[in-house]
Amino acid sequence: MKFVKNLFKWLFIIAIILIAGYYMVKYLVPSVGKAPKQAKMEQSPYYQNGKFQNVVETKSADFSQMPGIIKEYINRKAESAPSSDYVFQETNSELLSKDTSNTIHYNWLGHAAILMEKKGKYILLDPMLGKRASPFSFMGPKRYSAPPISAEDLPELEAVIYSHDHYDHLDYETIVKLTEKTKYFYVPLGVAASLESWGIPKEKIKEFSWWDQAQQDHEITITATPARHFSGRLFSQNNTFWASWVIQWDNEKVYFGGDTGIFDGFAEIDQKLGPFDMALLPIGAYNEAWHDIHMDPKEAVEAYHQLRTEKFFPIHWGTFDLALHSWYEPIQQLVEMSQNDQLPLITLPQGEWFSKNDHSENYYWWKKYSNTLNQ
């Protein structure tokens, strides 16, 4: 009887500690974010049974697969990170501020983050410039190297556009530094609640469902388009929506994939809004366990063909260790495929400006940072 009493005592203490820890993290760690009001989300046709849904059946890794995935990580032999000299030139945000050409210039800031510039105006996509893709500063996937520009050094921004609410895309430390210098934040349904809790004025936030559209300054049209993915922070899953985006800037059209699995929606996007001058397509962080929600290089090529785009720049690789493949595998495979398929691929390192008029020689710049490829 004494043993049973002591057992219940310790179980009670553990339960109290867990509950206290939950509420401490939820209310004292701002990066956890805030849940949206369910009544508003229920108005969306994509919101069912308390969660946002994809339009096609979509599976992601579940708890039953965790033991196998953990075992794979333990036995992993792939090169998980580049060498320590994986450092990029600093982006000069003023370099093109006096540019008068009628062309969008792009700069890859790592992962899915892209800085767009045209005639001295700037738009920023999925700016994750923090050290870790995590709610905590001391744990979680760590960035391989510093971004080519800090949030503090970025110029004034016409718009910041987010594809979805995941730590490797929507970063608290980055966004709070962009509040004062950004005109508008464009986010999928439900994400506004977190932004408002982080101090971003409500009037600066534009919250979209798929196919919602807004015009800014008579020269920029921004449209939320379908994606096949999911969302979630520490204590929530799929209570906010996800999207890809189409940005039309004067006569130039850009497709931004953000983070998505392969699906027939690319053809629909092209039919309604294409063709495109540039496609920014994710190619990394794939695995068979979550195949439906992340494209691999072969699927990214398939998406490229559906979109009918003039140029293709790969994103979502080479910044964080988020899957079991080597850090360089996505780009290595993509370039090899592009040579067979004659893809109009641009493969520049982080921190370098490019436009649709530039041509990439597909030089393997990442090879020098790999111990495996240099053998």
TrEMBL record:
| Membrane-traversing stretches | 7-25
Report the InterPro entries cross-referenced here.
Metallo-B-lactamas, RibonucZ/Hydroxyglut_hydro
The record places domain Metallo-beta-lactamase at 122-317
- Say if the entry is tagged with keyword Transcription regulation: no
Record keywords = Membrane, Transmembrane, Transmembrane helix
This protein's GO CC annotations: cytoplasm
- Per the record, the domain of life is Bacteria
Q: What is this protein called?
A: MBL fold metallo-hydrolase
Organism field: Marivirga atlantica
